[in-house]
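Hi C.,

You asked whether I'd gotten around to modeling the 180-residue construct. I have! Everything is below, sequence then structure, no commentary in between.
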Amino acid sequence: MEFLNEEVPGSIPINFKEDLIPKDKLIHKGIFSSELKEYYYTISNKDFTNFEVFVIKRNAENWSQPQKAFFNSEYDEHGMSFSPNGDTLYFSSTRPVEIEGVLSTWHIWKSDKHNGKWSEPVFVDIPNLRTKLVSHPTITNSGVLYFQSSNLDFSEMDIYHSEKINENLKTLKKFQFQPI
């Protein structure tokens, strides 16, 4: 069986590629592609500045050296997730948005894979959150987008979901956890 690491874990978790973490840096959320051939992860300074996304790729025998992810830019990026079919990658970024009324902060972006190549990232516009910090997206099979949002000072942070209506994200609701 081909596995992600040299060692197959049992009931006790094992570290995956701990050598990916440079000294004096933090590693954040990592994700595997759906076929488990790529691993994307974020590194920042310890003061939570300078977020960069890296990727390692699996070949027949081992993992490649880290390289910057295709969507990494001069701005901060993090909080990635793949769509269930693996053909769309959502992420958070501070890159500028050229829409009037959209504040300069974290927003959601996405890139689609066509014929094995990733498209240029596009802004995911959620009109009633243009003045908020929006990050850490994840999408379901049915197209519901879950994410966190807050004020720019991180107050009133909560989890939300937004559903597509006529190809636009229009319905926005605060996510309500249901007691078990």
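If it helps when you're writing up: Residues 24-139 form one domain.

Thanks,
B.
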